[in-house]
């Protein structure tokens, strides 16, 4: 078995080690908050130094990776941006939701998000900024833990708890002091969300920000959710009711 060959999968096809390493490296760089050195890559991914260097240089030459000003750090290149933008542009859910999101943004004037569950994280697919100066915007491609967001809870609430429990990591890390970090408490919260038909992020992801979300169902499954985020300083009971009513109306339009 050669270096690029992996074990047979269920379909009798061997994995290609170089391809697996390329994917792992690109995902590693996409999750990094700053440039990564060759030492970082070899240590964190367990790739031999010579192989990691050759892979980084290949990706650098093809535009998938860039170097920082000093030349010692590596980060995602512009080709990765093009691939991500193409994914969003051709996504059926985004296409269906975008016109309604535009209407919702014009009506409420607050930040609107569309996200999808991927493993134990939610990935933002599309976002529209608030018209106010005090706002928080999560750009497409950003990932957050599902249990710490209104979007994630709206999606998880429509799955059996056994399935939710299986996809969650062993430890539910906190983003703020309000984040739910125990499974029993999260299970109670998801049951309440299922009864209401909507979820609320009570400053669980970002302090000072409340997020309201509704699930989106396509072909019988809930994998996406729509949300409106608003600083609590601009929120009162009538405004909360208006936001939830607008989100529910938007959901009906998107689902058709």
Written account of the structure:
Helices cover 44% and strands 22% of the residues. It is of the alpha+beta class. A hairpin with a 5-residue loop joins β1 (5-8) and β2. The longest helix has 19 residues, at 237-255. The mean pLDDT is 89.
Largest sheet: 6 strands, antiparallel
Helices and strands, in order, run as EEHHHEEHHEEEHHHEEEH
Question: Shape, please?
Answer: globular
Tell me the strand order in the biggest sheet.
7-6-5-10-9-8
Structural class call reads: alpha+beta
Task: Explain the layout of strands and helices.
Elements: E1 5-8, E2 14-16, H1 17-31, H2 38-45, H3 49-61, E3 65-67, E4 74-76, H4 78-89, H5 92-108, E5 111-118, E6 121-128, E7 143-145, H6 150-156, H7 161-167, H8 183-196, E8 199-202, E9 209-218, E10 221-231, H9 237-255
Antiparallel strand pairs: 1-2, 3-4, 5-6, 5-10, 6-7, 8-9, 9-10
Helix pairs in contact: 2-3, 5-9
Briefly say what this structure is:
The chain has 256 residues and is of the alpha+beta class. The chain has helices at residues 17-31, 38-45, 49-61, 78-89, 92-108, 150-156, 161-167, 183-196, 237-255; strands at residues 5-8, 14-16, 65-67, 74-76, 111-118, 121-128, 143-145, 199-202, 209-218, 221-231.
Considering the chains and any ligands shown, give keywords for the structure.
10 strands; alpha+beta; 44% helix; six-stranded antiparallel sheet; 256 residues; two-stranded antiparallel sheet
């Amino acid at each position: 078995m050669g270096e690029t060959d992996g074990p047979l999968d269920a379909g009798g096809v061997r994995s290609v080690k170089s391809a697996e390493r390329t994917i792992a490296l690109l995902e590693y760089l996409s999750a990094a908050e700053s440039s990564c050195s060759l030492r970082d890559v070899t240590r964190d991914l367990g790739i031999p130094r010579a192989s990691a260097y050759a892979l980084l240089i290949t990706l650098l030459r093809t535009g998938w990776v860039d170097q920082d000003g000093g030349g010692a750090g590596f980060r995602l290149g512009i080709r990765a941006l093009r691939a991500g933008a193409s994914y969003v542009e051709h996504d059926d859910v985004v296409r269906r939701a975008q016109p309604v999101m535009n209407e919702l943004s014009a009506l409420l004037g607050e930040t609107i998000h569309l996200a999808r569950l991927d493993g134990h994280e939610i990935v933002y697919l599309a976002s529209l900024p608030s018209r106010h100066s005090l706002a928080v915007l999560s750009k497409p491609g950003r990932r957050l833990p599902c249990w710490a967001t209104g979007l994630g809870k709206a999606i998880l609430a429509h799955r059996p708890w056994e399935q939710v429990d299986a996809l969650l990591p062993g430890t539910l890390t906190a983003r703020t002091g309000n984040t739910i970090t125990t499974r029993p408490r999260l299970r109670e919260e998801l049951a309440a969300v299922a009864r209401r038909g909507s979820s609320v992020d009570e400053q669980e992801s970002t302090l000072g920000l409340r997020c309201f979300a509704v699930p989106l169902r396509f072909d019988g499954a809930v994998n996406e959710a729509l949300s409106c985020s608003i600083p609590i300083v601009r929120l009162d009971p009538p405004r909360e009711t208006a936001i939830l009513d607008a989100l529910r109306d938007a959901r009906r339009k998107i689902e058709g």
